[in-house]
Write a structure and sequence with these properties.
D-Maltodextrin-Binding Protein, domain 2, 538 residues, four-stranded mixed sheet, 2 domains, globular, three-stranded antiparallel sheet
Amino acid sequence: MKKLIPLVLVLLVLGGAVFAAGSSAASGSAPAAPASATKTPLGQYPIDTPVTLRYWLVLAANMAANYTNMADTPFGQELLKRTGVKISWEHPAGTAADAFNLMVASGQDMPDIIEYNWVTLVGGPEKAISDGTILKLNDAIDKYAPNLKAVLKANPDWDRMVKTDNGSYYVFPFIRGDEKLLYSQGLMIRNDWLKELGLQPPQTIQDWHDVLAAFRDKKNIAAPFTQVWTNRNRMFIPGFGILDGMYIGAGDNKVHFGNIETGYRNWIATMAQWYQEGLIDKDIATITTNQQNQKMTSGASGATVASVGSGMGTWTVAAKPTNPNYEILALQYPVVNKGDKLVYSIPNQPYSGQDSPAISAQSKNVEIAARFLDYGYTAQGHNVYNFGTEGVSYTMVNGIPTFSPFVMNGAGKNWPLAQAMSAYSRSPMAGPFVQDKGYIEQYYAAPEQAQALQNYILPGATTYLLPSVTPTQAESREYATIMNDINTYVNEKTTRWLLGNDPVNDATWNDYVSTLQKMGIDRAIAIQNGALDRYNKR
């Protein structure tokens, strides 16, 4: 169990504790804060300060459905009350990536805080630091963020994830604090149909074939299995002993590219056969999420890959009024042969870089920005970010923060649960805090959703996910160039195989592998292996 250290314990060890990476006064480190920033002692909230921070972030969809600015949300108002720090929230219009790139490229009038996935930048966080876009935060965290420091000290695995190979801290990270929070999508099937036909939940690839054939023949279903094709990495692939894209092999702890391995050939050959047999939606290459939802609620399809919340939860609410027996069952990935051990699954990492705020190198309010962001890692801030306002959106029940009936029933406005929670907290989204498993246990309120949490968890599966490694700036550019072309080619070739436009045989497979090698896949794997070696030495 990960440890979230409350502030009272932090203050006992403040005296000279430093990160393993140490403090740094190098270029890009935090400048000393003005003496007039605040007279409020470190670690105390609310902070008495005249400073107004500018905070850039994308307004998440569940919040944007009802608000145009974070300041107008109950969460934003509670955060102001608790921290005492005034925030001018800046939300980009249009495509977030385009707005971010334009802001960074201009390099002018930057906000104090920028929330983004800095891991995804070409060149990575170190380039953003060396370019003078964001601060190296080692000094700022040492001086002004005792709560984050304590959380990372108590959780060395998290600490290694949230810094670069050079030991640079660059964000106040969003961290999923429990294994239950790592799984949100997977295989799903109509359990009421299984019961109706006297079938057991499928456990092997052959079981799945037979069940889908029964749906086709006995239920007269035209598209037994459907899903959005861009999410195909979750379409049975782990059951074939690989993962889609780059991953760490269980046998050698080295980076592999799953799409070039024998398991991938076996997977696409199987899927192509199922497609020809009418077991897979004939429109799978083009269907949208809305079309998938319609097929799963109308009975046009009986199995899919989707989210436990927006998929299973939404469908169940929509279908049950007219079909009380409607029931979705979440299932772990099948194995090829009965008795095989499943090794791979597709959880999230505790830290993936998602929506984690950095402090701009141009900020003149580093102390206040750091102290404001550190609030999310205090015991009180943990509850505010995860559950909102005590007495309104949650109450303490036997020592456990529990969402109130007010929120669970739509916040008085009949909103979907995710929107109601998002008005009062950031737990359905991300930000500078450690996400609490109590959020997901309450969000997945239906029994079948609670069962999904249990069924999807595969202990040790995160071991084989490539963590947030940081190739060098030159390697990062080279890797992006190679993989942009490779990913396009893999997608095109895989789609042609699935639809039967090309046969899956020795000739087409060998030509595919040879083409990938010519495109530089071996070099891309080598870059990631080097980055993984450096990551493991952090």
